[in-house]
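hey
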């Protein structure tokens, strides 16, 4: 059996900027999840048809993934706008009725089963998984010839919960990538207006430092240079955050990358009397080493900042079949619930003087490497940042 997919006309299309994201969000993953759910429900329930409808963020239209398994639903009339294996280019009046959504007359409650008795022959069960408006609903629909038991309805609900959570992540990532696209456009216009003045200020400050005698004025010239260097570094962060990935992929040992990051933190570690522990066994991943080092730089610097003096920061990794899970744990005060919701947003910072881009950049790098990055609190105190990387690409 093969699930068929089809676009539904969008009542409220998304902004056109969605189609030009630096890292396009394909519908493939969501579509695949819907196909798996549809096929499972068709297999486990005595269904006439199963629909899964969601909003495709690439096309700005709703997408239907559906499967019909009973010959009596098929008519001899061909439908020119749908040509898929799942329906053999033919649909019954019942299928057309379900697709046209004339039954959708009211707002559906999220993650609740609603039963519609269309005729004496068919029963329809609907569960909303996302958008709830009558004109743009996202839902799972199951059409049967017999009433479903509570256990069977629970099966629909379980699958609906899975799809609903996946759609939330899908939309959050889309929003995140639109922010990157907007930032990239702004920075592209501003870069040349900032680089040259900063370089001139840096040059003049160095000339002043060399010409002035030792003392207060020379120290002030040095401070100007240092400030300009910090501004330039922050500008580099901003520009990098808005760029598309240009990965230089090779095989690297995570031990080597972590050791380089720790070396840069040594003055700070000595000041706070901290130690960073990491595994003594090598693990090799296929990554851009410079970019993954930026991830470790940001995450380890955060862990050091929030750790109490004379403590430890633990960096561990676990290897699975096709990926490695990296965990960086501190013993600080943890992350509040509000911070957990916003911690990867651009310009959101819990550190005094921070740009709010460190974690956003780290997340973008991990996404570019086809991994995931998230944060949690530890039950016995502290916070943990975890990310996955594919071992081979």
């Amino acid at each position: 059996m093969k699930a068929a997919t089809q676009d539904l006309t969008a009542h409220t299309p998304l902004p056109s900027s969605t189609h030009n994201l630096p890292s396009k969000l394909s519908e493939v993953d969501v579509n695949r999840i819907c196909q798996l759910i549809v096929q499972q429900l068709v297999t486990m329930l005595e269904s006439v048809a199963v629909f899964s409808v969601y909003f495709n963020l690439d096309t700005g239209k709703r997408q239907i993934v559906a499967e019909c398994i009973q010959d009596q639903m098929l008519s001899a009339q061909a439908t020119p706008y749908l040509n898929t294996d799942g329906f053999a280019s033919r649909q019954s009046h019942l299928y057309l009725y379900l697709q046209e959504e004339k039954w959708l007359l009211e707002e559906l409650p999220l993650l609740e089963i609603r039963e519609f008795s269309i005729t004496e022959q068919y029963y329809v069960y609907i569960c909303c998984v996302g958008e709830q408006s009558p004109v743009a609903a996202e839902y799972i629909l199951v059409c049967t010839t017999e009433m479903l038991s509570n256990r069977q309805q629970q099966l629909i609900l379980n699958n609906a919960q899975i799809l609903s959570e996946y759609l939330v992540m899908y939309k959050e990532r889309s929003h995140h990538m639109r922010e990157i696209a907007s930032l990239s456009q702004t920075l592209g216009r501003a870069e040349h207006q900032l680089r040259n003045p900063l370089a001139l200020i840096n040059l003049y400050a160095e000339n002043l430092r060399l010409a002035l005698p030792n003392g207060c004025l020379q120290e002030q010239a040095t401070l100007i240079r240092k400030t300009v260097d910090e501004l330039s570094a922050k500008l580099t962060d901003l520009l990098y955050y808005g760029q598309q990935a240009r990965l230089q992929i090779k095989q690297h040992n995570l031990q080597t990358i972590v050791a380089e990051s720790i070396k840069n933190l040594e003055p700070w570690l000595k000041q706070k009397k901290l130690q960073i522990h990491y595994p003594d066994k090598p693990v090799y991943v296929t990554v851009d080493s410079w970019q993954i080092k930026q991830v470790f730089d940001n995450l380890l610097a955060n862990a050091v900042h929030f750790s109490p003096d004379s403590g430890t920061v633990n960096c561990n990794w676990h290897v699975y079949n096709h990926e490695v899970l990296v965990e960086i744990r501190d013993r600080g005060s943890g992350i509040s619930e509000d911070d957990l919701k916003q911690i990867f947003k651009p310009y959101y910072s819990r550190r005094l003087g921070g740009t709010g881009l460190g974690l956003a950049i780290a997340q973008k790098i991990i996404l570019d490497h086809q991994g995931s990055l998230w944060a949690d609190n530890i039950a016995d105190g502290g916070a943990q940042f975890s990310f996955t990387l594919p071992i081979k690409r």
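Residues 8-27, 71-91 have pLDDT under 50 and may be disordered. The domain at 4-176 is CATH 3.30.450 (Beta-Lactamase).
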